[in-house]
């Protein structure tokens, strides 16, 4: 199972190698969002199941998460942080946006292989993305949408304040299988819910 230590006091997005479970990077949220919207849709056998299948489920529900993040360089600018002074919050925005991009090295390699007559059959693989919202909610996700509203700029037009709307879909064992690092992480996520439910 991927290592998510140290303990997180803020929400975070972590990335792991999807095959080995080794952590690649961490994006700590500058401020925890005021709200987190969750949608859970059951995977029933069919829209109109017959009486013998009305209580049957095909697997874990489809769970989606939405939150709005704020990124602000005010504190860094107040202490003359060299990165914030020269680039604003562009590095933080780039880090978030790159969760949706294949790496440039993979793009270049695939183009070279294509020019040599090799056909790339499988789509490019991205890192395993994990959303951590406290110790009881750490789950593999796929980013489904990301929108950025830049709200303030410095004299060089670098953004210094932005709101980021982030949509995610929780990846269950139906999506990733039981034997992958993501599958193991999802099972901990679900069994933690079952343990919490016993406390109600």
Secondary structure layout:
Blueprint: E1 12-16, E2 23-28, E3 36-44, E4 57-72, H1 74-78, H2 82-87, H3 90-97, H4 104-115, E5 128-132, E6 138-153, E7 159-170, H5 173-176, H6 181-197
Antiparallel strand pairs: 1-2, 1-5, 3-4, 4-7, 5-6, 6-7
Account of the protein in words:
It is a single chain. The chain has 200 residues and is α+β, with helices and mostly antiparallel strands. Strands 2-1-5-6-7-4-3 form a seven-stranded antiparallel beta sheet. The chain is 26% helix and 34% strand. It contains six helices and seven strands, in the order E-E-E-E-H-H-H-H-E-E-E-H-H. The two termini are 28 Å apart. A hairpin with a 6-residue loop joins strand 1 and strand 2 (23-28). The chain has helices at residues 74-78, 82-87, 90-97, 104-115, 173-176, 181-197; strands at residues 12-16, 23-28, 36-44, 57-72, 128-132, 138-153, 159-170.
Could you list some keywords that capture this structure?
7-stranded antiparallel β-sheet, 200 residues, alpha+beta, 34% strand
